[in-house]
Amino acid sequence: MSEMAHCNSIAAQLRALTTARVGLGRTGVSQQTRDLLDFQLAHAQARDAVHARLEAAALVANLTGIVDGLVHPHAGVLRLHSAAPDRTTYLQRPDLGRNLDEPGRASLAQLSGKGELALIVADGLSALAVERHVPPLFKALLPCLQGWRLTPVCVVEQGRVAIGDEIGLALGAKISVVLIGERPGLSSPDSLGAYITWAPRPGRTDAERNCISNIRAEGLSYVKAASQLSFYLTESRRRQLSGVKLKEEANLLKEG
C-alpha cells in the first residue's frame, strides 16, 4: 500500500468514529467544495440554534403529558421567564438570564416547600436541543426518581444555568437540576446539558455544580444520561453536596 493510500485509510477510519472534520480532502492548496459547503451549513445551523425561540407553550403541554403519565402525584409544569425580555437582550446581557422576572417570582412565592427536587428546563443557547431532547430524557429519567418528591417542573424562557439557583431557593428544594441547551458547536447545534446543584441559592459557583454534557442522539444517550443523573442525585443527597468534591468522591467510588 502506498503512503497516500495508507493515509487515506487512516483518515477513513477516523471519520467513521467521529463527526469532527478530520482527514478532509484537498484540491490543490484548497479545501474541496463539498467540505466547504458542509462547514458553511454547520455554521448556519449553529447560528440559527443560538437565535431560535423556544416554543415554550408546546413544550409545557408535552412535558405535562409525560409527567402525568409517569409521576403520581405531581405539582404540574410551570412556564416562567427570565429578566431578559427578548432574545437580543438575552444574548447581550447574560446577567438578566440568571434571574427571574417579577411575574415569575410572584408565581413561585406560594409554592415553597412543595418538594425536594426541582427539575428546571431552560432554553439556554439552543432551544433546538431542549425541544428535541428534554421530552425523551424525561421519559427515561422520571422512572429513576422513585422516592423523590418533585416540585413543579419549571420551563424557563431566556434562561441561563444560574437561574436554577433562584428557582430552587424559591421552591425550597434541596437540590435542583437544570436541563439547558448548550452552546452550539459546528457538529452539534442541539447538545443538551444537565447541571446538578445541592442547596441551590443565588451565588452558587460552577465549581459547586455537577455537569452532564452532550445529551443527544449522537452523543450521550437518554438512558445513560438518566442513569448518570440518578447517580449524582442519590450521591448528592447522601453527601449533602455537589460540584468538584462530589465528582472526586464519585470517581473514587467507580475506581473502587
Concise summary:
Helices cover 45% and strands 16% of the residues. It is an alpha/beta fold. The strands form two sheets. A six-stranded mixed beta sheet has the order 3-5-4-6-7-8, sandwiched between helices.
Question: Layout of helices and strands, plus pairs?
Answer:
Layout: H1 3-15, E1 26-27, E2 30-31, H2 33-51, H3 56-70, E3 77-81, H4 87-92, H5 102-108, E4 117-122, H6 127-141, E5 153-157, H7 163-171, E6 175-181, E7 192-198, E8 209-215, H8 222-239, H9 244-255
Helix pairs in contact: 3-6, 6-8
Counted by DSSP, the helix tally is: 9
Q: Label the CATH architecture.
A: 3-Layer(aba) Sandwich
Low-confidence runs: none
The main pleated sheet reads as: 6 strands, mixed
Q: At the third CATH level, what is the topology name?
A: Rossmann fold
Number of strands: 8
How would you describe the shape?
A: globular
Order of helices and strands: HEEHHEHHEHEHEEEHH
